[in-house]
């Protein structure tokens, strides 16, 4: 079997690549990662039998000038074509700008695409290629495709003779940036609908290179068989019924008044259903620097709070849950009856 490598830049890729759905395939794989030190990543490596290899240099965190210009042209072209642009949690205004007719012009777009591809040599790192060759890697998996880190790592993997495979995380990948660089040999998508959208947006992709294969993370969620019944789990988190609403909190920098929203939900449930109201299980956000703001709600009957047990490094933009916290998340998904989004 081809020696496999996994690329972990932001931490969350570990959840996609290392779970019960992939355990047999990733055993003895190499995980190339950029974070200096992560105790939780070491725990994942021990649990799933993979080798960790820290990349000291070679992975680019920012696109070069041609890449930045090409992205600006792509965004302008999306506005001209009435495609909605997304960024994080916000829908950007789709108003056409006078400059879009120049930046988003087809000839300008294709020229910048060509120049960016010609500039890929700037991302080549002999030391990184040597690390890949030394371990005999034949295939490398990526989560997503649009970050500068994924692009530069894939370019070096290709130089080392690896087959490169990118898993799509969700539709958000498509709406944030639907352009797939020509350094990925295979794109693994969720459905025929998603496959058609990617092929339409990327005429350079061969049809047999875009495969409906799902996502290992979703497969693991669907295949999970809990050891205990719902009542055991609900009792653990202070819920008096096995019917509950799962409330996953945002980063407070996006919206910081969510405890008030939960209080309003509780009030309406009590008014409508009385003693038959379901419980609420709140999962705090790992980027919340003040999780104590949820303590007041934790003291309310039939309300439980799971405080995020994650490593979060804002400077490195790295976040990863503990194995125990990730299992709790799987159980949350298995037992909840309603999940407000």
Write a brief structural summary.
The chain is of the alpha/beta class and 341 residues long. Helices cover 40% and strands 16% of the residues.
Kindly describe this structure.
This protein has 341 residues and is an alpha/beta fold. The protein folds into 3 domains: 4-59 and 125-220, 3-Layer(aba) Sandwich (Rossmann fold); 65-119, no CATH class; 227-335, no CATH class. The protein is built from 15 helices and 14 strands. It has a 7-stranded parallel β-sheet. A 3-stranded parallel β-sheet has the order 10-11-12. Strand 13 and strand 14 form a beta hairpin. Helix 7 (126-134) packs across helix 8. The chain is globular and about 65 Å long.
Question: Characteristics of this structure?
Answer:
globular, 3-stranded parallel beta sheet, 40% helix, single chain, 341 residues, Rossmann fold
- Tally of DSSP β-strands: 14
H/E element sequence: EHHEHEHEEHHHEHEHEHEHHEHEHEEEH
Counted up, domains total 3
What would CATH call the class of the largest domain? Alpha Beta
Structure annotation, total helices: 15
Average pLDDT taken over every residue: 88
Name the overall outline: globular
Radius of gyration: 22 Å
Based on helices, strands and strand pairing, what is the structural class? alpha/beta
Helix content: 40-55%
What topology, given as strand order, has the largest sheet?
3-2-1-6-7-8-9
Main sheet?
Answer: 7 strands, parallel
Uncertain residue ranges: none
């Amino acid at each position: 079997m081809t020696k496999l490598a996994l690329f972990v830049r932001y931490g969350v890729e570990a959840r996609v690549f290392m779970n019960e759905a992939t355990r047999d395939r990733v055993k003895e794989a190499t995980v190339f990662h950029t974070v200096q030190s992560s105790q939780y990543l070491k725990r994942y490596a021990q649990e799933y039998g993979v080798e960790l290899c820290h990349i000291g240099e070679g992975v680019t965190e920012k696109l070069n000038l041609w890449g930045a210009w090409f992205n600006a042209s792509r965004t302008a072209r999306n506005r001209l074509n009435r495609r909605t642009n997304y960024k994080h949690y916000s829908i950007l205004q789709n108003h056409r700008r006078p400059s879009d007719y120049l930046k988003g012009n087809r000839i300008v777009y294709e020229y910048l695409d060509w120049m960016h591809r010609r500039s890929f040599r700037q991302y080549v790192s002999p030391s990184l290629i040597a690390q890949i060759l030394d371990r005999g890697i034949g295939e490398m998996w990526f989560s997503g495709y649009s970050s500068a880190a994924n692009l530069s790592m894939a370019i070096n993997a290709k130089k080392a003779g690896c087959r490169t495979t990118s898993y799509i995380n969700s539709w958000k990948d498509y709406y944030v940036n639907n352009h797939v660089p020509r350094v990925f040999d295979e794109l693994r998508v969720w459905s025929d609908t998603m496959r058609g959208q990617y092929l339409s947006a990327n005429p350079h992709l061969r049809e047999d290179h875009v495969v409906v294969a799902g996502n290992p993370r979703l497969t693991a969620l669907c295949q999970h068989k809990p050891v205990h019944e719902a009542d055991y789990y609900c009792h653990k988190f202070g819920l008096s019924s096995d019917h509950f609403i799962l409330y996953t909190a945002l980063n407070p920098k996006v919206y910081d008044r969510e405890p008030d929203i939960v209080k309003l939900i509780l009030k309406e449930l009590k008014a409508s259903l009385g003693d038959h109201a379901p419980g609420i299980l709140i999962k705090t956000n790992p980027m919340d620097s003040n999780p104590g703001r949820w303590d007041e709600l934790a003291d309310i009957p039939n309300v439980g709070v799971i405080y995020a047990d994650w490593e979060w490094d804002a400077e490195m933009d790295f976040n990863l849950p503990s194995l125990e916290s990730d299992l709790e998340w799987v159980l949350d998904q298995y037992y909840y009856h309603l999940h407000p989004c």
